[in-house]
């Protein structure tokens, strides 16, 4: 059973690394009510960990993206997203004098440079009035609306930000930087699911407990690559439906093609963000034997050993290139229809 104490964005169908959902809820389980404050802080740290990795990937790879947004490096949250049972304790803990507040600040980003702080409550950013955004209790509507409005601000131009800090009005100036257009979200289910829906990357909280940042970045980079390559749109253009039947029938070749392409691009995304290019290999060597073999083997995804062999060959290529950013030639194909040819880009492990 799922037990979330806050709702996330609309559920997306998995275009994921895996279609495996397993681990019980370690942290966010039923016993969590004893100390909501400690739990909120644990979640804040986990959200910021995902946001910081996503930030590095999205900013350092902006030259690879054909859809950009105004990157600010602030992680937002809203009171609306807490379920009814915890909304009051969330209000006490975080304050929320306005409906949307800064949950965390990415180190070195524009928000930090502007002087924004955690728990600053947003009143206005440029022409965006936070109180004017519609939101229903129990949803992330208002959060998403705020994120989208901020993302659409003119990139690189200074905007005035009005916040309430411990009740007092503060005005700051924020200057965004170009970032690939994608949101990064932690899914608090304790599981090992990861997905990309074209505009968002979601990663299950199980990964955060079990893998170091480099390998977490590898998982996020794979999903992010799906968005950069417009895989959702290109699969839909092929008439391919997502979901549980993804691994069956004539659709398999298209899914496998997108999976191998995402693995290949992820190596470049990691290199450009200054992560080790062999992090995905380390991840699969750990994750593959325990969670991607046997009955958990997905037909829509190549075997993990073949993915490792393919990643190793690409990492070796990237290690020979010192310039950054590296812009792989394969990006030029993202405007073309998928042809289902995964065989020629996958390297077999033996
Ligand atoms: Zn994938």
Q: How would you concisely characterize the structure shown here?
A:
The protein is α+β, with helices and mostly antiparallel strands. It has helices spanning 36-60, 84-94, 110-114, 141-151, 206-210, 213-228, 231-237, 252-272, 279-291, 304-319, and strands at residues 68-71, 74-78, 100-105, 121-125, 128-129, 158-165, 168-175, 177-180, 183-187, 194-196, 200-204. The strands form 4 sheets. A 4-stranded antiparallel sheet has the order 5-4-6-7. Strands 9-11-10 form a 3-stranded mixed sheet. It has a two-stranded antiparallel ribbon with strand order 1-8.
Keywords:
16% strand, alpha+beta, disordered N terminus, 10 helices, 350 residues, globular, 11 strands, 4-stranded antiparallel sheet, Pdz3 Domain, binds zinc ion, 3-stranded mixed sheet, single chain, 2 domains
Question: Would you give an account of this structure?
Answer:
By secondary structure, the protein is of the alpha+beta class. The protein folds into 2 domains: 9-67 and 182-350, no CATH class; 68-81 and 94-180, PDZ domain (Pdz3 Domain), CATH 2.30.42. It is built from 10 helices and 11 strands. It has helices spanning 36-60, 84-94, 110-114, 141-151, 206-210, 213-228, 231-237, 252-272, 279-291, 304-319; strands at 68-71, 74-78, 100-105, 121-125, 128-129, 158-165, 168-175, 177-180, 183-187, 194-196, 200-204. It has a 4-stranded antiparallel β-sheet. β4 and β5 (128-129) form a beta hairpin. The longest helix has 25 residues, at 36-60. The radius of gyration is 20 Å and the shape is globular. The model is unreliable at 1-32 (pLDDT under 50). It binds zinc ion.
